[in-house]
Amino acid sequence: MRTLKSQEVYIPLKDAIMQSGVVLPDDILLGIEKAKREEEDGPALSVLKHITDNLSIAGKKHIPLCQDTGMVILFVSIGQELIIEGDPLEKVLYRAVEDAYEKGLFRKSVVEDPLKDRKNSGNNLPPVIYYDFLPGDRLIIKGLLKGFGSENCSRVFMLKPTDGREKVIESVVSAVRDAGGAPCPPVVLGIGIGGTMDYAAKLSKKALLRKLDQHHPDPYYSDLEKEILDQVNATGIGSGGVGGKTSALGVKIEKFPTHIAGLPVAVSVNCWADRRLEISL
Comparing C-alpha atoms, which of 245, 159, 154, 168 is closest to residue 201? Predict the structure, then answer.
């Protein structure tokens, strides 16, 4: 067994949240630069240039790269031979989120009740947390700062088993086409296929944790990712929704076994501000 003090979790997680709200991962930066090189002169290229200018300013001044600093989603994988000493883990996670948003001067965007009075929690709590367990003694936390301009464009499709691959592609493309410029394209798409309605949605968020160059290990799904990306970019929605060659930077798929009578497909839409974080302890 290995022991990890709660403070050893709190500090790196807080720092990672603060960093992800200010600086995008390298693969996303490279994806945006690639889109700039491939775009013709015009409104879409201007949008991409403004995005990179914005990112440069955020990095230099260490301020949030977007006014919507998101709702925190955490995927927490706990080694079965790990003991966390001190405060309960969930309390540590909450404190890291709260302190990161306070110290980073991030906008607090979470309301306590989704319908009744929608009073702001004042600390961006609670985060959405998914737990699982791993062999060994490591703690791995991956997460997203999920903005809601794009989240509001996410969809779930309960397809028939006979609908097959083409209907999956058609459904994803229709979600992007219906969204238009609302999710601040170029977007990153996380797609969950299989399980149940709720589990497909979880898979679609998990897919967003992968880097743009991390393709699905199964060639069938890797090819499907590429085909969906090509068809989404063929819509011509373009950066900022003003028309152009790049409507999406990447497409990532996660799959799971499902019932003989169903084919759940969930699409999580993320804007170009693909704010991922990861710590491994």
Answer: 154
